[in-house]
């Protein structure tokens, strides 16, 4: 399960809306509980440096490392990643699966618009398994 603070959820939606037709991306920070729940309390935006940002996302490795260091310096851990699918669909694409590299981590996908959607999947190392998403009361 992926549990987001309201502020983290709002930040992802705001970032996705700001991206327009291009995919946006970032890193989810928080903690993992003993039952495997990923609790997100901070969102770290990253620049999408993909060759085709309208249909793909990629975080520059140096920027990703800097974000991870900021997260760890704050006493948190990386619990996953997020990106948007401005035109849908609200599920991981074949490209998302080909490029997923963090088994056991959450990959959230946001579809912005009048009726925004945020779903999440755990990467097993071979496939994405859908996971529940919940908002944590503040």
TrEMBL record:
GO terms for molecular function: metalloexopeptidase activity; zinc ion binding. It holds the Pfam family Prok-JAB. Residues 2-127 form the MPN domain. The keyword Heme does not apply. It comes from the Archaea. InterPro entries: JAB_dom_prok (IPR028090), JAMM/MPN+_dom (IPR000555), Metalloprotease_DSAMP (IPR053551), MPN (IPR037518), VirAsm_ModProt (IPR051929). SMART domains: JAB_MPN. One of its GO terms (cellular component) is proteasome complex. The keyword Hydrolase applies. One of its GO terms (biological process) is proteolysis. Keywords: Hydrolase, Metal-binding, Metalloprotease, Protease, Proteasome, Zinc. This is Proteasome lid subunit RPN8/RPN11, contains Jab1/MPN metalloenzyme (JAMM) motif. It comes from Halolamina pelagica.
């Amino acid at each position: 399960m992926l549990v987001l603070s309201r502020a983290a959820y709002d930040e992802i939606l705001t970032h996705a809306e700001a991206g327009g037709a291009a995919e946006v991306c970032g890193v989810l920070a928080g903690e993992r509980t003993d039952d495997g729940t990923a609790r997100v309390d901070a969102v770290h935006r990253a620049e999408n440096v993909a060759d085709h940002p309208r249909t793909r996302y990629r975080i520059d490795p140096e920027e990703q490392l800097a974000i991870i260091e900021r997260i760890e310096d704050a006493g948190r851990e990386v619990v996953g990643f997020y990106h948007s699918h401005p035109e849908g669909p609200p599920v991981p694409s074949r490209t998302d699966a080909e490029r997923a590299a963090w088994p056991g981590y959450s990959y959230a996908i946001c579809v912005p618009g009048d009726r925004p959607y945020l779903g999440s999947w755990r990467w097993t190392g071979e496939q994405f398994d859908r996971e529940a998403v919940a908002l944590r009361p503040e």
